[in-house]
Design goal:
By secondary structure, this protein is mostly helical. Helix content is 77%, strand content 0%.
Amino acid sequence: MFLDDELLKICEQSELSTPQNIQELNQILCKKCEDYYKSKITQTMTNREVKVILDRTFNLFDSFVRMALKSEKDSIKILGELFKKHTFKHQFLSNEKINTIYNKLY
């Protein structure tokens, strides 16, 4: 199963009745994305290879959002709209130090 499919499945199986549940869901999804890219990165990789993996992770999250927006379940569509505004890339790069490092990758 690809990352985008896994993220959608997590959303479909989550309790979404409170804002706290949605915040916890966001943390779970971000952790899943972190685990994904960390499992792909090795010490011998070039900066370019690391950037490709991070960009692939960002793209898979965006793919998950597109899938959520097409869902037949209204609650999943609402999550799609939410995560369209608060993408993993946006959250990841909101950390100033990480943003600086990411932008130095080529």
